[in-house]
Amino acid sequence: MRSVILGAVVAVGLGLGSVANAGEVGVGVGAHDVDLRKQECCFESGQNLELHWRSEPLDVKRSLGVWRLWALGSVNSDKGTNFVAGGIQRRFWGDKKVYAQLSVGLAVHDGEDGDPPVANPDRIYFGSPVLIASEAAAGVNFNDDWSGEVAYFHMSHAGLAGDQNPGLDVVSVRLIRKF
Questions:
Q1: For the chain, what are the domain ranges?
Q2: Phi and psi (nearest 5°) for 55?
Q3: Burial of 41 by CB count in 10 Å (0-12 exposed, 13-18 middle, 19+ buried)?
Q4: Model confidence pLDDT, tens digit, residues 109-155
Q5: Do the bridges between strand 130-141 and strand 47-55 make them parallel or antiparallel, or are there none, so unpaired?
């Protein structure tokens, strides 16, 4: 599974600049499995290298914000969980200097997806190979072509695959190129 995830991330990265309808592409570096004062935390370490793709804005009423499709690939530097995710994203105040965006979708990972063998697990047990992905980000438009973002990404099974559900949290910084 790890080679499938790594291959997908590489393929996404190689195709980012030429993908039809790419509105934005970007790169990011994230802190992997960060401590957000969860009961179960910090089983994995390292940094994440991220590749991002976002579609042109979808044709919806402007009063509803700017909606896009998004995808990201993330590879961990310390043999932790790698993943690809995608879904729909809403941007608020996209035409201003500072903006915010919320994203939701699905993620596929190469981490452990079984049940924990003990009451105090020694690693993240995701419970499912397909997880719910969510993200909140704040960004700054540097100019018409470039922006920077700080983002919080979370993926888990949201309690749908059992009681044990720590998920994975990543906090990252990104550089985004707009087309």
A1: 2-178
A2: -75, 170
A3: middle
A4: 998 876 666 656 677 878 889 999 999 999 999 999 999 999 999 99
A5: unpaired
23-36: pLDDT as tens digits = 999 999 999 988 87
Amino acid at 87: G
SS (H, E, C) 37-53: CCCCCCCCCCEEEEEEE
Identify the CATH assignment for 2-178 out of 2.40.160.20, 3.40.50.1000, 2.40.50.140, 1.10.357.140: 2.40.160.20
Half-sphere exposure for 110 (CA within 13 Å, toward CB): 19
Overall average pLDDT of the 147-176 stretch: 88
The tokens describing 54, both together, are: 């976002």
